[in-house]
Amino acid sequence: MKRKLNEDDVPEEVTSTTISKPGSAFDSFGLDARILRGIQKEKFSKPTPVQSRAIPLALEGKDILARSKTGSGKTAAYLIPIIQSTLRRKSEPSYQTCISVLILVPTRELAVQVTKTAESLAAFCGQDIRVENLTRKEDDKVQRARLADFPDILVATPGRVSANLNNEALSLKDLAHLVIDEADLVLSYGYEDDLENIAKAIPKGVQTFLMSATLKTGLEILKGLFCQDPVVLELDEEEKDTGSVSQYVVRCAEDEKFLLLYAIFMLKLIKGKCIVFVGDIDRCYRLKLFLEQFGIKSCVLNSELPVASRLHIVEEFNKNVYEIIIATDESEVLGDEGHKKKRKEDGEEGEEDVQGNGEENIPEQIPENSTELKTSTGNETLNGTKTENSSEPPKKKRKGSRRDRDYGVARGIDFKNVACVLNFDLPTTSKSYTHRIGRTARAGKTGMALSFVIPKELYRKHKPTSFLTTEHDEEVLAKITKHQEKKGNIVQPYHFDMKRLDGFRYRLADALRAVTRIAIREARVRELRQELLKSEKLKRHFEENPSDLHHLRHDGELRAARIQPHLKHVPDYLLPGGSKKAIADDVGFVGIHKTSENRIRKARIYNRARGKGHKVSVGRNTDPLKTFNAKGRGKK
């Protein structure tokens, strides 16, 4: 059978997408054959609503301001027409090498994700499309050299672009396309001055894309700076049936949060991968150490970890290496106020924070439940309180943990095939809740969001597990419920039969007692040292031996808390129904080198048999005359 030739005389593959309805397939947009192959490689079956609406308009050269939920394909919606336009422009005889596309993103993690997607879509374009990520930590000279090579597509944070414009390492005079991804988040991160600087450097007539999950009044600033009569696309109605999140709320006491989480994972009540959101970094390690007591493996993801480690954790999670991630996103938990402070005062130090000297990254003593974090200027706190005009003399700044201000996990990052988002600590705003639960039910799939809520009368009733923001859980839940009802979603109560978990309570108490403040601090220090070693000292080794990176795991035991082996075993009589039928047959990952809990006892017996230590009879054939010690116990 002869295959049909397209306009470039390239035979088309006969697939289900090519025989679908008119206008539903990507080939209806008149795209280059190389881009179609890249789309096929990405396994996009058909355009999503935002892609169907945005791609034709973008190919016509119109400015676009699109609002579409997370996981709806916004990245491909602007990358596909940009690559198409760049290929067409480069085929013209008058074309001169230049940076023609600038993509601005708020976080490093999102920059890596956009770069990978762009490279994958342009995989069959050879050297015609070259993509560079400017957010990587590297020497200024290396960065200048990469910019001097004039990549076609440049992905960066506004701070990095502004800094390179100021030192004349970057020129945008020939820019043709500008994209601001997660535009509302870029504004909330305090990039206003950097954006104004970029707006002065770009020429008139640049095609602009503003992509966001929410359209706020603040976007009028960006429209005024970059857009000229943009087409506004709001796709909430079209995307209602493309995927659904079942939302549940559990009202419980503070210590019962830990009991419920233990029961959920031990009894495998959640099938598939899960992201657990907590309030702060200390809370991450408290939860990880708690789960370690029961042999439940998990990864920690927060702004304190090196960039390379964070990106590798997300990548391995998407490859199904890990099933549980305990994550925190300080900007989301504390609200928008934390990032509205001007970052220029910090001299973009946040770009280098977690990649510097390992000793500088080790946290000092930090209040266990503190959510008020000082910025690097020392004059402002994240809750907006200024101290520089205070009558009290300024205190000596204590060296604390240095966190990456370009970190973000609740927005933009593509976590694949997440079955459940579990809000262990409820966020402080309904907007943050919306972005968190957007990590599941992506690309038309279904998912579940489960949130733990502390009633006011139970707040501070169990001080060791109490957390400050939970005091307002009921007020926040009322706002979340109202906001979700406007979208046609229902937040339903989920009633656990807590009496059936009474048999686990003594185990809960044992595990919580073992996770002390000192253990949490030691766990943070140990994890940070381990990850710095993996990301920095082994960086070149992994570049030369990429297969070794595949075996690097991030869910190992920290062993900062006292290990109690009996907690890992659950007797039948403790299980609901009195049998192990409640637990799925799938036991999950079991390591090749299984360690025995009695290895110390076996070592003692072995040593005694060899004549070391106390002499005991180790078998029937032992000759008592040969083991007799006439000088007395312990003497030779």
Automatic annotation (TrEMBL):
It is found in: Nucleus. GO terms for molecular function: ATP binding; hydrolase activity; RNA binding; RNA helicase activity. Residues 55-233 form the Helicase ATP-binding domain. Residues 244-502 form the Helicase C-terminal domain. Belongs to the DEAD box helicase family. DDX56/DBP9 subfamily. ATP-binding RNA helicase involved in the biogenesis of 60S ribosomal subunits and is required for the normal formation of 25S and 5.8S rRNAs. This is RNA helicase. It comes from Glonium stellatum.
